[in-house]
Design brief:
119 residues, mainly alpha, 5 helices
Length: 119
């Protein structure tokens, strides 16, 4: 009887530990919430100018981090947009600087997904 109780307990633990959440995770951004596909000239440049390229040493002319103040300056980093997306979502801008809003994150992510159109 004692062995049956132990086996039942172990079976219960096994069954509970095997339960998983099969739901699809909610995306961090939803491109369908935007009225049009973002472009560098119409949408991204304003974000870059206000959050990424305005302080010395940031993504402006002469920066070792890359000059994102022009589309041509960003082109070198765009093919590796997975890293750019991770940095934007997790690390940039650094502490002490104005953070990106959810809308700005969405625009950047959707712009990258669309193949980063210039205009």
């Amino acid at each position: 009887m004692k062995i049956l109780g132990v086996l039942l307990f172990m079976l219960t633990i096994f069954m509970l530990s095997s339960c998983v959440d099969d739901s699809v995770p909610k995306p961090l951004y939803a491109c369908d919430s935007l009225s049009s596909t973002p472009t560098y000239d119409d949408d991204i440049r304003a974000v870059i100018d206000t959050k990424c390229a305005y302080a010395p040493g940031c993504h402006n002319v002469g920066s070792i981090l890359g000059d994102y103040s022009t589309f041509q300056g960003m082109e070198e980093d765009l093919p590796d947009n997975i890293n750019l997306r991770v940095l934007v979502n997790k690390d940039m801008p650094t502490a002490g600087f104005p953070q990106l809003t959810q809308e700005e994150l969405t625009k950047i992510s959707c712009w990258l997904d669309a193949g980063y159109p210039e205009n």
